[in-house]
Design brief:
283 residues; alpha+beta; 5-stranded antiparallel β-sheet; two-stranded antiparallel ribbon; 7 strands; elongated; disordered N terminus
């Protein structure tokens, strides 16, 4: 997961330092206005490693995820058959069918004379409108909520990224496209990249059967260094996600001994003689 480089990023690169995974698990019957139930969300982190907190504090991460969860909640609109709006559309369509059948059975169109054919056509047209209009309204509502979700999420991220401190958030993920029973599936996107479209697919895949969504945290090293210089802050190089910083610890001699400098060995004995320990003499 993440970059596989073995060294921290150099100036000018964009380094992925952390990814928050989306939990897409949601109830099939959930809609914020009628039955607000469980929907896709980010779980708040219990902690962040020291390198990530150089760029994004735990408090900031908790607030960002809480704000994104609020947007995901109020723009939730399941396209499934258990959506109350779909059931309402289905009932409306059945009602329109019942009215049409009753009208056609009980109405005597012979009274209309030459206009009987026209009257029948008008009633058929009205029936088709009554049959399809509820589902058209449902599809329009689905498109509106999805567009609203995209706009609100991307605007929030764009507003956060406008701080110019070199820390950038982005949506991403991957999805698996099946190519048939005898072919290997094609993977679009990645755990360290992807676009909002992949994230959106993952948000509607409640079982994570073919997709995953993430909120990525990147550090733009050039922008970050300039920001640190402008604000009088010490620049810390980001460590790519999935790596650990190897710290070089100064050698500590055994208790009671000191390391003899090479210069002293060269002036007091054979210069080819390896360094040795000397017992420390208490003053």
């Amino acid at each position: 997961m993440g970059s596989r480089n073995s060294t921290p990023g150099v100036v000018g690169e964009e380094i992925l330092v952390h990814s928050f995974e989306l939990d897409p698990d949601a109830d099939t019957c959930q809609m914020p206005w009628i039955c607000p139930r469980k929907n896709a969300m980010f779980h708040p982190p219990e902690s962040l490693n020291e390198n990530v907190q150089q760029f994004l504090s735990l408090a900031e991460a908790e607030k960002i995820l809480a704000d994104l969860n609020a947007i995901l909640h109020r723009t939730a609109f399941s396209p499934g058959l258990c959506n109350p709006c779909f059931l309402l559309a289905l009932l409306s369509s059945c009602g329109a069918s019942g009215i049409f059948i009753s009208e056609m059975v009980t109405r005597d169109f012979s009274d209309y004379g030459r206009n009987a054919g026209l009257q029948i056509q008008l009633r058929i047209f009205g029936f088709l409108v009554g049959l399809m209009l509820p589902f058209i309204c449902f599809l329009v509502l689905l498109c509106v909520t999805r567009s609203s979700r995209r706009k609100q999420l991307t605007n929030y991220i764009a507003d956060w990224n406008s701080r110019g401190n070199g820390v950038k958030l982005s949506f991403g993920g991957w999805w698996r496209q099946s190519m048939g029973a005898w072919k290997e599936p094609v993977i679009h996107g990645s755990e360290s990249g992807g676009t909002y479209d992949y994230f959106n697919m993952a948000a509607w895949d409640s079982r994570s059967s073919y997709s995953k969504g993430y909120l990525h945290v990147h550090v733009q090293t050039g922008v970050r260094q300039q920001w640190c210089s402008t604000n009088g802050t010490y620049y810390v190089a980001p460590i790519p996600l999935g790596q650990t910083l190897v710290q070089v610890v100064a050698y500590q001699p055994p208790p009671g001994y000191v390391v003899v400098p090479m210069e002293e060995l060269q002036t007091s004995g054979d210069p080819t003689e390896p360094p040795s320990y000397e017992k420390a003499v208490a003053s």
